[in-house]
Amino acid sequence: MDTIDWGHLPFGYQKTDYNVRCYYRNGKWGELEVSSSEFVNVHIAATGLHYGQEAFEGMKAFCGKDGKIRVFRWKENARRFRSSAAGIRMAEVPDTIFKNAIWKAIKLNRKHLPPYGSGASLYIRPLLFGVGAEVGVKPAKEYLFLVFVTPVGPYFKEGIKPVEMMICRECDRAAPLGTGHIKVGGNYAASLSAIEQAHSNGYANVVFLDAKEKKYIDECGPANFFAIKGSTYVTPDSPSILPSITNKSLIQLAEDMGIKSERRPISVEELSSFEEVGACGTAAVISPIAKIVDSETGNVYLFCKDGKPGPISMKLYHKLIAIQTGDEPDPYGWVDIVD
Ligand SMILES: Cc1ncc(COP(=O)(O)O)c(C=O)c1O
């Protein structure tokens, strides 16, 4: 591990030493188990394999200048994880088990934590799925909760570069009363063809519209959409988008900077009135968007006129990272230290 070029790690899976597991059987959660295997032995009729009983989370731990390990807003992830489990009728993981498993996974893999200043972090992936065997469509009686960690590089290795996206009109990521608001695997499976199409057309990702009217912006691939309009931060209000913890944090930071925030439906046409546009989420914090193309209408929406990310997006980006790494005070108690 000593020779790792932390600043150039990809955002991808890299083997670490241990993962932490916990089984739900006979109506209760068992003890945490530590494993050094990258594999799970799963029943061929497990509901996680057949009926999509699977949910996950994505979060990060950072090494600070003081050498302390900081985890960002884990309670929010724990809450969303419970809501994802409830949404597809899986056993919910109690917050103490969620936290203990994460803390254990981080500590056991301490040597894989990227150092302060590298821009890299330790990505944490909690996962829950049905392992009980069923053939009829019904919830499993047994579940596996698992946490693995993997070091990931900074999303933008050569500085923040605004990206181009295309509006997707051929398929939907999630239905209005479906599972778009929870973090379950099926949503990601449903988004893959659109994302692949965007990539093959040279775009970084896809902007999904609301499935009912195809009129409003929902999400940007696996991230929330936001825009700056005058002195207001606007972000979509929709029943089919994932409530992003990054977005929620940026809204708070924007308000602290005197920028109002609005959560409301955002029509595609409104894109022409925005000064700054971006995607936000755990992976990149903010990914500024330079261009959005709507191939059906032929409209091209341009932002970042000089090729640079907008000033408000950048201010928010730097502020959030400074809180996550401990460079700046954490006024809202978003960060917990792993001791
Ligand atoms: C579909 C989707 N939307 C939004 C987000 C951003 O959420 P968060 O900021 O909690 O990472 C993610 C990533 O987790 C996502 O997968």
Number of contiguous helices: 6
The secondary-structure element order is EEEHEEEHHEEEHEEEEHEEEEHE
Tell me about the largest β-sheet: 9 strands, antiparallel
Report the uncertain regions. none
Unique bound compounds: pyridoxal-5'-phosphate
Helix content: 10-25%
What is the distance, rounded to the nearest whole angstrom, between the alpha carbons of the first and last residues?
Answer: 22 Å
Radius of gyration, CA atoms, in whole angstroms: 20 Å
Computed structural class: alpha+beta
Taking all residues together, what is the mean pLDDT? 96
Strand content: 25-35%
Briefly summarize what is shown.
With 339 residues, this protein is an alpha+beta fold. Helices cover 22% and strands 29% of the residues.
Question: Could you characterize what this model shows?
Answer:
With 339 residues, the protein is α+β, with helices and mostly antiparallel strands. It has helices at 47-50, 74-87, 95-108, 185-200, 245-256, 311-325, and strands at residues 19-25, 28-29, 33-35, 54-56, 59-63, 69-72, 121-130, 143-152, 163-168, 205-209, 217-220, 223-229, 232-235, 260-263, 276-281, 285-294, 299-302, 335-338. Strands 1, 2, 3, 4, 5, 6, 7, 8 and 18 form a nine-stranded antiparallel β-sheet that branches. β5 and β6 form a beta hairpin. α5 (245-256) packs across α6. The structure holds pyridoxal-5'-phosphate.
Write the layout of secondary structure elements.
Layout: E1 19-25, E2 28-29, E3 33-35, H1 47-50, E4 54-56, E5 59-63, E6 69-72, H2 74-87, H3 95-108, E7 121-130, E8 143-152, E9 163-168, H4 185-200, E10 205-209, E11 217-220, E12 223-229, E13 232-235, H5 245-256, E14 260-263, E15 276-281, E16 285-294, E17 299-302, H6 311-325, E18 335-338
Parallel strand pairs: 9-10, 9-16, 13-14
Antiparallel strand pairs: 1-2, 1-3, 1-8, 4-7, 5-6, 5-7, 6-18, 7-8, 10-11, 11-12, 12-13, 12-15, 15-16, 16-17
